[in-house]
Structures are given as C-alpha cells and as structure tokens.
Amino acid sequence: MGLVVQKYGGSSVADAASVLRVAKRIASYRQAGHEVVVVVSAMGDTTDDLIDLAGAVSPDPPARELDMLLTAGERISMALLAMAISGTGHEARSFTGSQAGMITDAEHGRARIIDVTPGRIRGALDDGAVAIVAGFQGVSQTTKDVTTLGRGGSDTTAVALAAALGADVCEIYTDVDGVFTADPRVVPLARRVPVIAHEEMLEMAAAGAKVLHLRSVEYARRYNVPMHVRSSFSGRTGTLIVEGEATFPIGPDQTYSSGSENSPMEQPIISGVAHDSSQGKITVIGIPDVPGKAAAVFQIVAEAGADIDMIVQNVSTEVTGRTDISFTLPTADADQVVDVLEAAREDLGFQRLEYSGRIGKLSLIGAGMRSHPGVSARLFAALSGAGINIQMISTSEIRISVVTEQDDLERAVRAVHTAFGLDSVEGEAVVYGGTGR
User: CA–CA separation, 152 vs 210, rounded Å?
Assistant: First the structure.
C-alpha cells in the first residue's frame, strides 16, 4: 500500500455536502490500506471574503495581521474535514501549517518554504490516522509569526509535504478532470491531457494555466514527485505528471505504472495552449543604448520585488543612440515599478515610460517542438487568420509566447487551439464547480 498526499481546493470543500463527499473519498483510500495526508484550502470564497472584510476595516492592513486573518479559512476547512472523516469510522487529526512543520521565510503574503519537518504528521500516520493539514500557510523560521504562501499556495504545501514524507504520489483535486489542452472555460472543446512531463507542466503553469500553482510544479520537478491532477466531483482518472519509471496509486484500488497501456508511447507535438490576462507591459522609451543601462533598469525592478516575464529590446537608431525596452509583469506590481523607474529617470537617462494593463499572453507549449519544424509558422498563420496583432514574442525550447491586446486574447486561444488540431471530438469539457471569483 502507498502513501498518498491529497490536496482539495476551495470549490471541492465549498460547503458541508462537499466536505462529506470528500471525506468519503479519503475514507475509501484509507479502507484500501493507504496512508493518507490531506491538504485543504479555505471553503469556497472564504479567502476573498476575508480580504474584503480586512479592506472594510483598514485601507492598508498590516501584512502580519492579514496573514493571521487569512489562515483562519484553512483552519476551518481542516477541522470540519477531520470531523467528517471521523464520522466514516476512521481517525483523523488536523494540523495548522506550523504544526505540520512548514517552515518559511518571513515574507508575509508570499512566503517561501525553506524547510519541512513533518514529525507530527508522520506520528499521526504511524498511529493509523489520516493527517489533515491547513494549506497555504506556515511559520517564519526567524520571527515565529504565521505566514502565507500566496494565492494557490495550498498546491505548494501538498507537494512539499509529499516530498518530505517520501509519498508515492501527490493528488491535486480541483473542479475539472485534469489538465486540458486549454482552459475549458475559454475553449469548451479542450481535451484532457492524460500524461505530461514536469517540464511541460512547468511551462504551462508559468504561462497562465491556473489548474496548478507554478511553485508547486517547480517543487515537484525538483524532488521528482509524481502528481495526479483530477476532479473531486468525479471518479475519473485525471492528468498524471510524471518523469521516467514510476508506479503509484491512482485510486483506492488502481495503480499506474509507466510503460503500461495508460502511458502513451509517443507524446504529442503540442501539449496545450495557455493564456494569461493578469499581466501588464511597461516600455522604457529612449534609454541610452550603452552597456549597463538594461542591467540598471532590471536591478531597480528586482529591488521593487516584481517578477519579470517577457523582455524585448529594440535595435537602437544610429542617429540617436537610444533604444526602447519593453517587459511584462503582473499588473499587481506595475504601479510600484512605474513609480521607482520614474524616480530613477534622471540616473537612467530615458525619455519616458509607457504602461498598458490591457494585454494578454498566449503560449503554445509542447516538447515535440524540438523536433518538428513549422510550429511557429502555423501559430502565426492562425493568429493572422483571426486578425490578431502581435506585440511581443518570446520563445524557449518547448514554448512560444506572444502578447496581444487583452480583448483579442480568448479569440486568439480558440483560433490557435483549432489550428493545431487540439479540439476534442468527444464533446465539451466539464467544469464541475467553482465560482470563478
């Protein structure tokens, strides 16, 4: 029998009926003899409601107190789920992030895990209990304050625990039946991807696929943790994220083994089309084209704590000796970055800044690109045929990303999805739950 870590998102534990349904699923694994660790998110829209509540009493709530408030949502979920599991005849013990040994840095709101010491979790498993852990949270190694990992951090909690415990698999339960070739909310004919490598999944998560948190995939790749993305609303096998030879449970009485009939002999050229509408674009116009200026710009951006995605520098004109540098970043970071760059305008010597928050990023991802020419030509032909203008282009070995106008993004995704033959012939994908808030 195996050790299985399961993570349930907010839509999976949105109300009492959902909690009871999840408890039955967990009990079926325990009944089959598996050791089970469960990571839970806050119920439904609880985190958003708590953020709204904080904003109602303070226009700028202290980061420490906001973290203290937000972690309450997961504590509610873990306690209710432990009660529900007890009702199935199995013992369950709930633990906060700090009790579970999730040690982080002191960065409130987006802390990073620096160590996992799951002694109490291992003890609960040894006693035959199901361990329920509050996701999204930990405790600072230096200040001993409660911290949160940022939105989607429960995925990272689950993978980190799976790595620390040597789990056979980390199951991520959500409101869709796995990873799809595109967001089924945008492309109803998107197809489920049965098996995908960590490398491709990492690119999809980085490019905006919201089914998995980027940091969780990074963690899984680093520690070679097999992942199984599936829906808590159905019993279907989802998407397996795995590298090389592996054997692990995919259900109470089912096992996956690489090389078996559910492991494709040859991966497709394209794994999927991801999109992201949460980024903005800053252009530094008329900066001197001399060594060190680009470094100075991005040093300032880094000190502001912003994550940069795509970067394009134009060729300088011979007459002026100046160039333009454009880059994309999360819209949440844009105002601060614009402010710090404007403050450094005299030192940097640029002429002006332009900012647009109305852009969208489309990314085509697939390991098969390495050995198949013509992928770029087909992508640009599809966008041209749909009347989509491209503002920026960025590539890697297995990804091509383009920036478009935000209003064109969803139409662009559908056009590219169809152009690469990714549309399903089996009907529309099912989205079971979630409010989309």
Answer: 9
pLDDT value of residue 434: 53
| Residue ranges covered by each domain of the chain | 3-263, 271-421
Q: To 10 degrees, the CA torsion angle through 140, 146, 151, 157? A: 60
Mapped onto helix, strand or coil, the DSSP state of residue 402 is strand
End-to-end CA distance of the chain: 38
Distance CA 40, CA 33 (A): 21
Q: How far apart are CA 118 and CA 235, in angstroms?
A: 29
Closest CA to 335 of 404, 299, 286, 282: 282
Task: Report which of 436, 2, 437 is spatially closest to residue 185, judged by C-alpha positions.
Answer: 436
Q: Look at residue 191 in the predicted model and tell me its pLDDT.
A: 92
Architecture in CATH for domain 271-421: 2-Layer Sandwich (3.30)
- Sort strands 311-313 and 322-330 into parallel, antiparallel or unpaired: antiparallel
The Cα–Cα gap between 345 and 131 comes to 54
pLDDT at res. 265: 42
Task: Output phi, psi for 222, to 5 deg.
Answer: -60, -40
Closest CA to 278 of 403, 430, 414: 403
- Give the span between the Cα atoms of 32 and 51, in whole angstroms: 40
Superfamily holding 3-263: Acetylglutamate kinase-like (3.40.1160.10)
pTM assigned to the model: 0.87
CB atoms within 10 A of CB 350: 23
Please, where are the H alpha helices in 235-374? 293-303, 331-343, 345-348
Report the chain (437 residues): mean pLDDT per 10 consecutive residues: 94 95 97 97 94 96 97 97 98 97 96 96 98 97 95 92 97 91 92 92 88 90 95 91 89 83 59 93 94 95 92 80 94 94 95 94 90 90 96 91 95 96 82 53
